[in-house]
Structures are given as structure tokens and as C-alpha cells.
Amino acid sequence: MMRLVKTIFELRKVLSEVRSEGKSIGFFPTMGALHEGHLSLMRAARKETDFLVISIFVNPSQFGPSEDFAEYPRDLEGDLEKAEEVGVDLVFAPGADEMYPEGFATFGVQERLTHRMCGLSRPGFFRGVTTVVAKLFNLVGPCVAYFGQKDYQQSVVVRQMVRDLNMEVEIRVLPTVREADGLAMSSRNKYLKPTERQEALCLYKALNEAKALVAAGESKSEKIIEKMKEIVAKAPSAKIDYIVVADPENLEDIETFKGRTLVALAVWIGKTRLIDNMLISP
Ligand code: AMP
Description:
- The protein is α/β, with parallel strands linked by helices and 282 residues long.
- It has helices at 8-20, 36-48, 76-85, 96-99, 118-121, 125-140, 152-164, 194-199, 202-215, 221-233, and strands at 3-5, 25-30, 51-56, 90-92, 143-148, 169-174, 238-246, 261-269, 272-280.
- β8 and β9 (272-280) form a beta hairpin.
- α6 (125-140) packs across α7 (152-164).
- The longest helix has 16 residues, at 125-140.
- The relative contact order is 0.13.
- It binds adenosine monophosphate.
């Protein structure tokens, strides 16, 4: 039977019992509105650990004042059904007051990796992410934590935080799950109107173009970014936030492809901001 837990007190109590039985704990933090991308990560996590915890929490501290916190899709009932189907053992779904009680005043930061890409266009985003992920790791305790490659920068930032702050968490990053036509699954895809849904494919198309160019021997980032821009520009409602070619570890821009390289982009499709990335090797 899957358990739904809403308080920190109960979460700790259940997990200390689970640990006393010698079971390994897998943890998958989410903001809910679970889709097939989430479910596929949970299925993988299910196989690798004895007791699988997921959290469902739309974290207010990672949304900017003009962002979509209020509109973000929420469906706890539906999420619980899906989680049960994939064999989750415990869902932690705290209220905002449980996570950020009156007087809360400690926030995480991270500068070297967060002052670029999504961190530039969403000031405060990674401050919120590191805060909530650090709290969740402290609550769940030693575990294997699962993240999706779709949010590549997030996975790098979290890995760095775990290393720097000596958290007893092993990070596993699993591949991006896509729709049949290549669009990366995302809770925010729900915002797209039918014509925008078509246009949203430009992110994946641009990444494939980058891959094809590299395969054909192109190694200059500038040339690759230029071609990607051309592809995105064909979608009438698309507006580029960023396109980067970067080192997959430190996220610094690189000029010439050498080994495995991160190509990542964020694009506004109308009022919806989408991100995607690929790791490409020459
Ligand atoms: P979210 O609920 O969107 O914050 O995502 C929770 C976790 O699921 C994050 O680690 C995401 O990277 C991961 N995730 C979301 N969408 C996908 C996807 N399409 N493929 C793989 N992982 C994903």
C-alpha cells in the first residue's frame, strides 16, 4: 500500500522505520502534474531501490513574482493514482506552511553554476531550487536521488551542492523522455495551444540540427548556434531566451567541440517557456 504523508514529523517516523529494516531508499522530487517522463524515472528508480519516496511540492521559492506559480498545473488525486501504479511506496506532499513556516529565513545559493543559462533569465530560481532540494534531502536522509536530464543545469547544481555540503545522497540523472515527435515531456506543455504545440518542436529540431552538424564535422559553437537560431526563427511564436554550447560539468561556454558537449536552449513559445538539451559528442 502506498502511503501519503503530509507532515515532516510523519515522514521522518516512517523513514526511520524503513531504515531500521535495512532497506535502501530512492527519492524522486517533483512538482507534481505527473506525466510519462516522471513515471518513467519512477519505474527506473523502483527497480534500483527497496523503498521509493517521491515528493510532490510546487515550491513557491523557486518562482519569480511574474512567473506561473498560480497557474502551475496541480492534480494531487491524479498524481497519487499514477504513483501507486508505478509502485511508489510513499508520497510526501507537504503544504507550503510545512516547508516554509512563519519566520523561515535560510536560503541556498550557488554562484558559479547558477549565474548562467536558466539562472540568468530566472533570477532567484536556483536559490529556490537549492533551498527546497537541500530541505528535502535533509528530511529524506541518505538516499539515491533521481533527476531528469531535461533539467540539465538543475542536475549539475544539485550534484555540486551535495558534494560541497557533504550530503549523504547519491545523484542519478536519467535521460529525457520525449513525446513520439520528439518534444520533451513537461508539465508546462499543457499551456501550449494546438498551433504552439507544433511550433514547440523547434527546440528538438534545433538540437537535432546541432547533432547533425557535429556529425558532419562542424566544431565551431558559433556556427552551430547560428543554425539553431535559424531553425527556431521559423516558428512564428518562438522567441529565444538562450542557446548555449557548454562544458557539461562546469557549464562554461565552449568555442570548439572536443569531447562530450552540452547543447542547451530555452525558448518562449508564446507565453510558455520551454527548455531542452542534448549531450553531443563529435
Ligand atoms: P518537475 O516536476 O517538472 O520539477 O520535474 C521533476 C523531475 O522530473 C526533475 O528531475 C525533472 O528533470 C524530471 N523530468 C521532468 N520532465 C522530464 C522528462 N521529460 N524526461 C526526464 N525527466 C524529466
